[in-house]
Amino acid sequence: MKNVYLDNAATTKISPEVFEAMRPYLQTNYGNASSIHNLGQKSREAVDKAREQLALFLNCQPSEIIFTGSATEADNLAVLGFLGHIITTQIEHPAVLETCRYLEKQGVEITYLPVSKDGLIKVEDVEKAIKPNTSLVSIVYANNEIGTIQPIVEIGKFLQTINYKLLTKIIFHTDAVQAANYLSCDVQKLNVDLLTLSAHKIYGPKGVGALYIRKGVKIKPIAFGGHQEYGLRAGTENVAGIVGFGAAIAAISNLKSTILNLKSLRDKSIDGVLSKIPNSALNGSRESRLPNNANFSFAGVEGEAVVIALDQAGVCASTGSACSSGSLDPSYVLKAIGLTNEQAHGSLRLTLGKYTTEKEIDYVLRVLPEIVANLRKISGFKQ
Ligand code: PLP
Predict the structure, then answer these.
(1) DSSP structure string for 264-275
(2) Ligand 1 atom at shortest distance from the alpha carbon of 207
(3) Do β-strands 110-113 and 85-89 pair in parallel, antiparallel, or remain unpaired?
(4) What are the C-alpha distances in Å from 381 to residues 277, 344, 377?
(5) How remote is the CA of residue 209 from the centroid of ligand 1, in Å?
(6) Residue 363 pLDDT
(7) How many independent structural domains does the chain possess?
(8) How far apart are CA 78 and CA 277, in angstroms?
(9) What is the pLDDT of residue 323?
(10) Residues with catalytic roles
(11) Which atom of ligand 1 is nearest to the CA of 206?
């Protein structure tokens, strides 16, 4: 079998309706959305429409959405500029984690909350971490490596209560990049003030992100030299990309019916791997988990070797570890849930998507046990 794509957490295939929606803005309607002539006006209208599509999805006003060049940029925009104490987690995406580390070096106090062995944050831990000068709480909605879903609604409710009681305004940010396909991102129900999205994780184009900013929340721009996006994101808008983002968001509601199917395919892959491969384990919560994520550790093998062998067998997967960035450090997410270096090095992430079929999962379950067994022979691992 060729090109079994099980790396949907890394990026997704652009869907045909998204591609078709974008096409005119790449070929004929190429105007700059800031130009006053008719081509410019067409681009402006298209950007406005996409903003409305995102607003409908998030249950907010269009004016509360800022388009950016990526979710990484949106996360940076959300976090930079807060100078009081910040609470975040040990398992954030680097876009938040590294930004917090940068602020820490500038003297900002940061609390990195630990997670349980299932990869979950406790609301009590957020409560205990609050200080009189806490300005921001930033917690990822669903983790990109192990797919665990955090109790964002509960944390949002708690922060609302504490803000009311203490007459404070602690801002709540969530990175919903991995969650958007599967979980409600209604910002009123979540009680969040800032929320990050990425187009290319939802069958849209790469290079477009968005930040929801609740009306009244003060955010400092991180790029200067243009009036675009209410002065918060200077630079000519990526009109075709933004149009694709809008179309991808609008298609998400149609996806709900596929979630049950995805869950059953995911469970088939989890049960199949755990039963067919001895000395294997599932990383992250089994229950509070995205319907498309399976993350395993195999004793006695390197995750990278499994990924390369799977690739040779036509399967695109990932280790989900930091090694892909050129570092040989084991995944900090897997370390945070208590894995040893060796367990973290032997990890494999399979992330399914709307195009994944049962036949493909059956194929992976046929080839993977042999791959792991062969690698274990080479490494001299005794079962
Ligand atoms: N946040 C999370 C949770 C992610 O999984 C990713 C992508 O891997 C990002 C942020 C960054 O998204 P982008 O590729 O749009 O910068």
Answers:
(1) HHHHHHHHHHHH
(2) 15
(3) parallel
(4) 13, 16, 6
(5) 9
(6) 98
(7) 2
(8) 42
(9) 46
(10) 323
(11) 15
- Range list of β-strands (E), 7-89: 65-68, 85-89
Query: Which helix H or strand E contains 334, and what residues bound it?
Result: helix 332-336
The residues pairing with 194 across neighbouring beta strands, listed in sequence order, are: 173, 213
Domain boundary among 192, 218, 251: 251
**Which are the contacts of 379, defined by CB distance < 8 A and separation ≥ 6?**
300, 301, 302
Distance 92 CA to ligand 1 centre (A): 10
Q: Give pLDDT tens digits for 79-135.
A: 998 999 999 999 999 999 999 999 999 999 999 999 999 999 999 999 999 999 999
Each residue's pLDDT tens digit, 50-75: 999 999 999 999 999 999 999 999 99
What residue ranges line ligand 1, CB within 6 angstroms? 70-72, 75, 93, 95, 140, 144, 175, 177-178, 198, 209
Does this model's pTM top 0.70? My answer is yes
How many whole angstroms separate alpha carbon 302 and alpha carbon 343?
9
**Same domain for 88 and 138?**
yes
**Alpha-carbon span 255 to 176, nearest angstrom:** 17
Domain-ending residue, one of 251, 270, 292: 251
Strand partners, 198: 209
Output the residue whose Cα is nearest ligand 1's atom 8.
10
Q: Does 246 lie in the same domain as 300?
A: no
CA of 179 to the centre of ligand 1 (A): 11
Three-state DSSP at 145 gives coil
Q: Domain range spanning residue 298?
A: 4-12+254-379
Tokens of 206: 């790469």
Helix (H, G, I), strand (E, B) or coil at 315: strand
Angle between helix axes 38-58 and 239-276 (nearest 10 degrees) is 40
Return the best residue to mutate from 72, 233, 331 for the ligand 1 pocket (most ligand atoms within 8 A of CB): 72
Across the range 323-327, mean pLDDT stands at 52
Q: Which residue has the tokens 């976090």?
A: 79
For residue 203, the one-letter residue type is Y
pLDDT one-digit tens code per residue, 14-25: 999 999 999 999
Cβ-contact 196, 209 below 8 angstroms:
yes
Q: Ligand 1 centroid vs 177 CA: distance in angstroms?
A: 6
Same domain, residue pair 240 and 138: yes
Q: Residue 321: give its domain's CATH number.
A: 3.90.1150.10
